[in-house]
User: Fold this.
Amino acid sequence: MGDGDLRKSGSINVRTLIWNKKTLKLIDQRELPFKEIYVNCKTSGDVGSAIKDMVVRGAPAIGVSAGYGVALAASEFTAKDRLAFIAHLKSSIGMLSKTRPTAINLFWALGRMSRAIDKNSNLGIDELRKIIIREAEDIEEEDLQINYRLGENGKDIFTNSRKKLKILTHCNAGALATSGYGTALGVIRSLRRAGKVKNVIVDETRPYLQGARLTAWELYREKIPFFIISDNMSGYFMSEGEVDIVVVGADRIAANGDSANKIGTMSISIMAKYFDIPFYIAAPLSTIDAKTKNGLKIPIEQRDEEEVRKVLSKIIIPGYMPVRNPAFDVTPNQNITAIITEKGVIYPPFEENIKKIFKH
Assistant:
């Protein structure tokens, strides 16, 4: 199914980003679900700020946006010096690489853009500019297809299941976290089309409320049944038999399968293991960082304490009280049932099977 087919089919009715060759429009995820407005990025610096300030978030969406950030860097350069043009592109890549340290898709996309520059560095500015823009567009188009295939692979796990599933998810790994369709929500979308979803339990996902604000908004728009819970309710619903499976995304997966995702994911995995509930990671292969041996080596972003002190701009913790705000935690591989990718489902032993899937 092609890009246009996916959008026309009704499988995607959320546009995370819109590229028109001159600007990148990003839906402002800080304002959802109350306002649907787009931020207009005209320069690579605008894209860098949008990534850092959480206008756009979700590992694949960050990667796609970064690719377009480099494309805008190519468009904004007006001088005639080819070497200065290449230096400008590399400088923009350096700037974008400093925006979010945990999401490996950012570095994957920037690495791909850098290789495209190096491979064609002998060309004239106009030719190289066209190649850079086309490379960014390819990253977006491929991401959409990857997420659709990933969703179908996740659906196929439950082909023989006779009952409709009660699914718990954490944070937002939907169309808003990608160029469209989603990873964890991509699996849920495909299951829904197959008639295998009873309802989705949405963790609110403090402190940024990506579940309550974003995942619920996507599910509501697509009429997928759901209800929202606070993060500390997950164990209760598991104990009551209200959860058949857990499906979440990932921002970086180590070579041994340890997976970094939004803070709170590790706790859910521990409870799921206790209650013998299958726990799935859904992520493209670009999220797997083969150079990082295990989760202990994954850098964890520490964000502004104000995100914890406030809920929707209302102060709930006074300034004299100390606060910490790690954005991610790492789920150990022994808590993961399988990792769903666009090339298939990876089961334990993860280190061995991750190597195999990359070979294929």
User: Anything to note?
Assistant: DSSP finds twelve helices and 16 strands in the chain.
